[in-house]
Amino acid sequence: MLLASLALSLPALSGCSSSWFCQDTTAERGEAGRKVQVVDTDGQNLGVTVEVVGWRLTPHPQVPADGDKVHFDYRFDGTNEPRGPVVDACAVDQDRVALRCTTVDAAGAWPEPDGTRTGDDWLGVDHPRRVAAVLFLPNDQSYDRPSCATDPKDGGGKHPPTSASTGDQL
Q1: Which of 47, 100, 162, 167 could bridge 123 with an S-S bond, Cβ 3.0-4.6 Å?
Q2: In sequence order, what DSSP letters do the residues of 51-63 get, joined into one string?
Q3: CB-CB contact of 75 with 85 (8 Å)
Q4: How many CB atoms lie within 10 A of CB 109?
Q5: pLDDT higher than 70, residue 11
């Protein structure tokens, strides 16, 4: 009886009980918009807003022969951290289908006297005239803990949603 009791308790003490198995989950992708509140993997507001200030089709000055690209300006508000959130920005068509996406890092934007951070970026799309808007996804992509596959002992937990890509419906 003592041996059976010891045999049953040993796996629980060693971290092998069912409640101790490494588990990965993925956060839900938030709704894209021109101006969004940035959220963490639990959907909690980080107190940071990111907004597309404007966009236009124009040739990139370093490769004008490649034709029009989407050049967009953005602003982060509420981030005073040297490392800020990272969010996806996508050029979309009239049906909100992503034509091209990139990640935008608040830390890469320029600090302004009013406390905001501003920047610009470029997106090359196959059919520039189909672009109807540039949208941000609210999900912070900057924190992605190790997965169970890469670290079964300490990994696991909630991960940001998969980054948006061409063809995704936003």
Answers
A1: 100
A2: EEEEEEEEE-TT-
A3: no
A4: 20
A5: no
DSSP letter (8 states) at residue 48: E
pLDDT at 105: 94
Rounded Cα distance between 32 and 29, Å, is 9
Q: Which amino acid is at 63?
A: V
pTM: 0.81
- Give the type of residue at 48: V
- What is the C-alpha separation between 79 and 84, in angstroms, rounded? 6
Using CA atoms, how far apart are residues 139 and 126, in angstroms rounded to an integer?
A: 26
Distance of alpha carbon 163 from alpha carbon 139, whole angstroms: 9
Pairing assessment for the beta strands 24-26 and 157-159 based on DSSP bridges: parallel
Q: What is the mean pLDDT of residues 159-164?
A: 87
Count CA atoms closer than 13 A to 63's CA, side-chain side.
7
Task: Provide the pLDDT for residue 16.
Answer: 42
